[in-house]
Design goal:
This protein is α+β, with helices and mostly antiparallel strands and 149 residues long. The protein has a single domain (13-148), classed as CinA-like (Maf protein, Alpha-Beta Complex). The chain has 5 helices and 3 strands, in the order H-H-H-H-E-E-E-H. The chain has helices spanning 13-19, 37-44, 48-54, 59-72, 121-148; strands spanning 77-83, 98-105, 111-116. A 3-stranded antiparallel β-sheet has the order 1-2-3. Strand 2 (98-105) and strand 3 form a beta hairpin. Helix 1 (13-19) crosses helix 5. The longest helix is centred in the last third of the chain and has 28 residues, at 121-148. The two termini are 23 Å apart.
């Protein structure tokens, strides 16, 4: 599982939600919390040029983070989350509430989703986690299981 915070978007919420499930140690290998751009590059191999060209909160960076986690860990799936939870830090192009989720599958394509969630900081964080990140991960895991059956 890959994770990223921008403006402290999730700071471990994805890993926390997954490991709160009994038996999760059978399927959760590790997590990466990469707040700084340097950490994204060092731990996940996100090219500095990608961050410079598109920003930390971008589909390109979210995809590179998820792909980097799959490349650096013995996992089949990785999810990354980056965004602006607020209350500050937003712009016209990247407003508060913007969340970009990346999902990478070993040997498969990476995809990203862009969402803008309403509400305060807590509401944005919960929506990104509960509504999208875990849902995408679950759907992709089910597909992998069905294919291997």
């Amino acid at each position: 599982m890959a994770r990223c915070d921008r403006r402290i978007l999730h700071r471990g919420l994805v890993a926390g939600a997954l490991t709160a499930i009994a038996g999760s140690s059978d399927v959760v290998e590790r997590g990466f919390v990469t707040y700084s751009n340097e950490a994204k590059s060092e731990l996940l191999g996100v090219p500095a040029e990608t961050i410079a060209a598109h920003g930390a909160v971008s589909a390109e960076t979210a995809a590179a983070m998820a792909e980097g986690a799959v490349a650096r860990a013995p996992v089949d799936l990785a999810v990354s989350v980056t965004g602006v939870a607020g209350p500050g830090g937003g712009s016209a192009e990247k407003p508060v509430g913007l969340v970009i989720i990346g999902l990478a599958r070993r040997g498969g394509p990476c995809r990203t989703e862009r969402h803008i969630f309403a509400g305060d900081r807590s509401a944005v964080r919960r929506a990104a986690l509960c509504i999208r990140a875990l849902g995408l991960l679950e759907a992709e895991a089910r597909e992998l299981i069905e294919r291997s059956s």
